[in-house]
C-alpha cells in the first residue's frame, strides 16, 4: 500500500472539486478545503454532475465505486485542521500571487514535515511563492487539465529548490491517482499545456473583442480547417471563465483587446452565473449530459 493515503485539496471550485474526486476515486482519503462553507455546500451537486460524466467516460465505472469515493471525502473551512494529517497538499486557489503566498504560509505552519506540497497554478511560476511554504525542498507543481477524469494529464514541474526525490515521488503519486504524468524539467509559466493553449485562446478572444465574428463561427472554422474536435470557445467553456479571468487579471502585459475580453467574460458570464460547462452555460448552452444545445444568444454579435 502506498504511504500516501491522505490528500488535502485547497480550493473547491471547478477544477479543485475535480481534483478532490480524482484522488478519492483512486482510493485516497481527501479533505476539501475552502474559505466559506457555502462553497463546500455546493459539492454534493458537483459530485452528481461528475457521476454522469464518469459513467459515460470511464469504462470501468461502477456506481458503488463512485459512492465509495464520495464517502472518502470530508470538508473543512479550517486550513490548519484540513492539512494537519495530509501526506499531500494540492493547492487550487485563484491565480493571484499574494493569495497563494498567504495560503501557503498558513499551510507551512500546520502541515507535517513529510508532506509533499503541490500547486496546480496555471500560469504563475511555483518558485515565485515556494519560499512562503517554509519548506521549498518539498514544494513543486502538479498541473491538472479540466475534465481531469478524461483529460487525465499530470504535468509535474519542480522549482530549482525541489528535492529530486520529492519530484520522483510526485510522478509516482500522479500515477496513483490515475493521471498520466508528464515531467517538466525546466520551470516555465504555463507548463507544457498552457504554454500552447493560452496563446490560442488569446487569439480567439482578440477576434471576438474586435467583433470580427461570432464565437460559434470561429469555432466551426477552426474545427473544419484543422480537424480538431473542439474550437477555442468550446475550450473556454471547459476551462471555465473564472480560471480565464483570474489568469487575465494577473497579466501585466495584457493588451487592450485582452482586457476588453476579460471584462466581457466577467460581465456576461461570471456575473450572470453562466461561466462555462460547469454552469451548463457559457459561450454555448448545454444539456444535462454536457452536450451543446445551441450557441448562447448573449454572445451573438451578428445574425449569420
Automatic annotation (TrEMBL):
GO molecular function: 3-hydroxybutyryl-CoA dehydrogenase activity; NAD+ binding
Keyword Nuclease: no
3-hydroxyacyl-CoA dehydrogenase C-terminal domain boundaries: 190-286
Pfam families noted in UniProt: 3HCDH (PF00725), 3HCDH_N (PF02737)
Site note Important for catalytic activity, residues: 143
Keyword GTP-binding annotated: no
Key words of the record: Oxidoreductase
First-level EC class: oxidoreductase
Domain of life, per lineage: Bacteria
Pathway: Lipid metabolism; butanoate metabolism
Domain (3-hydroxyacyl-CoA dehydrogenase NAD binding): residue spans on this chain: 6-186
Known EC number: 1.1.1.157
InterPro entries noted in UniProt: 3-OHacyl-CoA_DH, 3-OHacyl-CoA_DH_NAD-bd, 3HC_DH_C, 6-PGluconate_DH-like_C_sf, 6PGD_dom2, NAD(P)-bd_dom_sf
Coiled-coil ranges per UniProt: none
Record SUPFAM superfamilies: 6-phosphogluconate dehydrogenase C-terminal domain-like (SSF48179), NAD(P)-binding Rossmann-fold domains (SSF51735)
Family recorded in the similarity comment: Belongs to the 3-hydroxyacyl-CoA dehydrogenase family.
Record's protein name: 3-hydroxyacyl-CoA dehydrogenase
Amino acid at each position: 500500500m502506498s504511504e500516501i493515503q491522505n490528500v488535502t485539496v485547497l480550493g473547491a471550485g471547478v477544477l479543485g472539486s475535480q481534483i478532490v474526486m480524482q484522488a478519492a476515486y483512486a482510493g485516497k482519503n481527501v479533505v476539501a478545503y475552502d474559505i466559506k462553507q457555502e462553497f463546500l455546500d455546493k459539492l454534493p451537486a458537483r459530485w452528481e454532475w461528475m457521476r454522469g460524466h464518469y459513467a459515460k467516460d470511464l469504462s470501468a465505472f461502477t456506481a458503488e465505486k463512485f459512492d465509495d469515493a464520495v464517502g472518502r471525502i470530508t470538508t473543512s473551512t479550517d486550513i490548519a485542521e484540513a492539512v494537519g494529517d495530509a501526506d499531500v497538499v494540492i493547492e487550487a486557489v485563484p491565480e493571484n500571487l499574494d493569495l497563494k503566498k498567504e495560503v501557503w504560509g498558513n499551510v507551512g505552519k500546520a502541515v507535517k514535515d513529510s508532506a509533499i506540497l503541490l500547486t496546480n497554478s496555471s500560469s504563475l511560476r511555483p518558485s515565485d511563492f515556494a519560499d512562503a511554504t517554509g519548506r521549498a525542498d518539498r514544494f513543486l507543481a502538479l498541473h491538472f487539465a479540466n475534465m481531469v477524469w478524461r483529460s487525465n494529464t499530470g504535468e509535474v514541474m519542480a522549482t530549482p529548490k525541489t528535492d529530486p526525490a520529492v519530484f520522483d515521488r510526485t510522478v509516482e503519486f500522479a500515477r496513483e491517482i490515475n493521471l498520466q504524468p508528464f515531467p517538466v524539467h525546466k520551470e516555465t509559466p504555463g507548463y507544457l499545456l498552457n504554454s500552447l493553449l493560452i496563446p490560442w485562446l488569446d487569439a480567439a478572444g482578440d477576434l471576438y473583442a474586435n467583433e470580427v465574428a461570432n464565437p460559434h463561427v470561429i469555432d466551426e472554422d477552426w474545427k473544419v480547417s484543422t480537424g480538431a474536435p473542439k474550437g477555442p470557445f468550446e475550450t473556454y467553456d471547459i476551462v471555465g471563465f473564472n480560471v480565464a479571468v483570474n489568469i487575465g487579471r494577473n497579466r501585466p502585459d495584457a493588451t487592450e483587446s485582452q482586457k476588453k475580453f476579460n471584462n466581457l467574460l466577467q460581465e456576461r458570464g461570471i456575473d450572470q452565473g453562466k461561466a462555462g460547462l460547469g454552469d451548463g452555460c457559457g459561450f454555448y448552452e448545454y444539456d444535462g449530459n454536457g452536450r451543446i444545445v445551441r450557441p448562447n444568444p448573449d454572445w451573438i454579435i451578428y445574425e449569420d
